[in-house]
Amino acid sequence: MLWFQGNSMQLAKSSFGVFLRNLSASKTVLPVLTLFTKDPCPLCDEAKEVLKPYKHRFILQEVDITLPENSAWYERYKFDIPVFHLNGQFLMMHRVNTSKLEKQLLKLEQQSAGD
Fold first, then answer.
1. One Pfam family from the UniProt entry (predicted)?
2. Where are the alpha helices (H) located in 1-115, listed in sequence order?
């Protein structure tokens, strides 16, 4: 889960564990696409359907903004879900912008290939 502290975002232990498992499984580290959501969220369900063709290119991490530990995210995004961050950076909200997602994934894949 992601949490917000001051002006910096930090990855909590749970996502770091996913990152480490991914790192050990492959030389190529998949980016983490974080979906800020709640239950129910029909727009989030629709967004997840749109993401299916891309699912092999990232790790999807869902953050339920209604949980007490995510109250900062709730205050920030309560009227805007679904909201997406890619590797901890804001990417898009309300709907999946496939061209923006594709562009950012390609950028990260090219950076990874160059390492």
1. Glrx-like
2. 13-25, 42-51, 71-77, 98-114
pLDDT for residue 110 is more than 70: yes
Q: Does the model's pTM come out above 0.85?
A: no
- Which tens digits make up the pLDDT trace of 96-108? 999 999 999 999 9
Q: 62-66 — which CB contacts under 8 Å span 24+ positions?
A: 62/34, 62/35, 62/37, 63/1, 63/2, 63/34, 63/35, 63/36, 63/37, 64/37, 64/38, 64/39, 65/36, 65/37, 65/38, 66/38, 66/39
Domains in the chain with CATH codes: 32-112 (3.40.30.10)
The end-to-end CA distance of the chain, in Å, is: 27
